[in-house]
UniProtKB/TrEMBL annotation:
PANTHER family tied to this protein: HTH-TYPE TRANSCRIPTIONAL REGULATORY PROTEIN GABR
One Pfam match: GntR
Keyword match Transcription regulation: yes
Protein name per Swiss-Prot or TrEMBL: GntR family transcriptional regulator / MocR family aminotransferase
Top-rank taxon, per record: Bacteria
Organism field: Prauserella marina
Keywords from the named record: Aminotransferase, DNA-binding, Pyridoxal phosphate, Transcription, Transcription regulation, Transferase
GO terms, molecular function: DNA binding; DNA-binding transcription factor activity; pyridoxal phosphate binding; transaminase activity
InterPro entries reported for this sequence: Aminotransferase_I/II_large (IPR004839), HTH_trans_reg/aminotransferase (IPR051446), PyrdxlP-dep_Trfase (IPR015424), PyrdxlP-dep_Trfase_major (IPR015421), Tscrpt_reg_HTH_GntR (IPR000524), WH-like_DNA-bd_sf (IPR036388), WH_DNA-bd_sf (IPR036390)
Family note: In the C-terminal section; belongs to the class-I pyridoxal-phosphate-dependent aminotransferase family.
Span of the signal peptide: none
């Protein structure tokens, strides 16, 4: 970038709005027109300040503004680069509701630019310097003992989960946990599961690979309809009780009791997907189901929405009757998860780094949630917003006359990837849009939602 014409002030020129605003605008334009493409590394603030004969604080502030807008990513020790506008995971970018180059507000992802790189690298260095021969060899298929001990304490404190370290199985995310459970339950004669309707399409696709078929059970304002579950005759059900996906409904106390009574009566298994338990903004955390009925509830979760999906670190705490079969299958599948990342995570938990990271993310995601809600009220007046008290996504209810699939297709043509609510349904239902706000700064969210507003108002 040295000597770039677009960053040169004429001799004696004094920008009307100040040098910080001028520099930020010139960089913003360069990103928009492709002069600075995704991944381009910008000069260090001191270097660029010297080249432009500006105060270093001017450059620091310009970089900060663009980072807040999501145009730049600054990593401690890694410099500042131009952000990739496609922030969703590959599976979503390749889906019918997304495409390369679109602003992807379809997923409930965290802000991955906030990944604690310095803390993770510090933990990895510590692990590499202290790991024993035993830890570097073949490990327990349940996972590294240090991580299971750290998780037992953390889950007990944060979610009320009752877990001895020996009962925890480290998995490749929630998908890995569901795959293990589906295979083991099949061996116990359970070849079909009940699932929430609407429910997470990704989980449905994973389970569809292992099971004969899935039985949808309606969700209403109190969560899963347990009476409908009982009528289905199923013996296993996948639920998201603390923050139903995608509606955001919390399973009511009465329904929680009903569900656990069903499991006891039917000899059934409740698979509790605690997928975003860490994000609560306007209400207290809801205690995990597993703590009330550990003999009937399999608790699964991961770090995909806390650190990053790429780590592929999750956990499964199953009823004792299934535990040994699950451990044996984990061993037979791949001998267990990689040990070094587990030991690094254990250090993050033990040193408090994970909790500090979570506090930062909660503040950031709450601000983005507020920005998304404000934009919806401005650009989609009359559309109800649901699921705002927790998580990383919300649901916008559209007028009944509209087809949410058509709205999503039109949005994609305009460069905005968003999930129609029908994408997560078995049975037809009221139209809506599922909007993920975690990865996006407020200005980008507002622009995307303004585009949705224009499309909806034109229908």
């Amino acid at each position: 970038m040295a000597g770039a014409d677009f960053l040169q002030l004429d001799p004696g020129q004094s920008p009307r709005n100040g040098r910080t605003a001028w520099l930020a605008e010139r960089l913003r334009i360069a990103v928009a027109d492709g002069t600075l493409g995704p991944g381009t590394r910008l000069p260090a603030t001191r270097v660029l300040a010297d080249e432009l004969a500006m105060a270093r604080g001017t450059v620091v502030e310009a970089y900060r503004r663009l980072a807040e807008e999501g145009l730049l990513v600054t990593n401690r020790g890694g410099g500042t680069i131009v952000a990739d506008p496609v922030t969703g995971p590959p599976a979503l970018r390749e889906s019918p509701v997304s495409r390369p180059g679109a602003v992807d507000i379809s997923s409930g992802m965290p802000d991955l630019t906030a990944f604690p790189r310095a803390a993770w690298l510090k933990a990895e260095r510590s692990v590499l310097s202290s790991a024993t021969q035993r830890e570097l060899g073949y490990t327990d298929p349940r996972g590294a003992g240090k991580l299971r001990e750290a998780l037992a304490g953390w889950l007990g404190r944060s979610r009320g989960v009752a877990a001895d370290p020996g009962r925890i199985i480290v998995t490749a995310g929630v998908a890995g946990a569901l795959s293990l459970l589906a295979q083991v339950l099949r061996r116990h004669g359970v070849t079909t599961w009940a699932v929430e309707d609407p429910g997470a399409d990704g989980n449905r696709r994973v389970l569809g690979h292992w099971l004969d078929h899935l039985v949808p059970v309606p969700v209403d304002g109190h969560g899963l309809d347990v009476s409908a579950l009982a009528e289905s005759g199923e013996r296993a059900v996948l639920v998201t009780p603390a923050h139903q996906f995608p509606t955001g409904v919390v399973l009511s106390p009465f329904r929680r009791r009903e569900l656990l009574a069903w499991a006891e009566r039917a000899g059934g298994v409740v698979i509790e997907d605690d997928y975003d338990a860490e994000y609560r903004y306007d209400r207290a955390p809801v205690r995990a189901l597993q703590a009330t009925a550990p003999d009937r509830v399999a608790h699964v979760s991961s770090l995909s929405k806390v650190l990053a999906p790429a780590l592929r670190l999750g956990w499964l705490i199953a009823p004792p009757a299934l535990h040994d079969d699950l451990v044996h299958l984990r061993w037979a599948t791949d001998l267990g998860s990689p040990t070094l990342p587990q030991l690094a995570l254990a250090q993050l938990i033990e040193t408090g780094s994970l909790e500090r990271h979570l506090r930062t993310l909660r503040r950031r995601h709450q601000a983005r949630r507020d920005a998304a809600v404000a934009a919806i009220r401005r650009y989609l007046p009359g559309c109800a917003v649901e699921g705002v008290a927790a998580g990383l996504h919300l649901v916008v209810r559209l007028p009944a006359r509209l087809d949410d699939t058509d709205i999503a297709a039109r949005a994609l043509e305009a460069g905005i990837a968003v999930h129609p609510l029908s994408h997560h349904r078995f049975a037809p239902g009221p139209p809506g849009l599922v909007i993920g706000y975690g990865p996006h700064p407020a200005p980008r969210l507002e622009r995307a939602i303004a585009t949705l507003g224009t499309i909806v108002s034109a229908e």
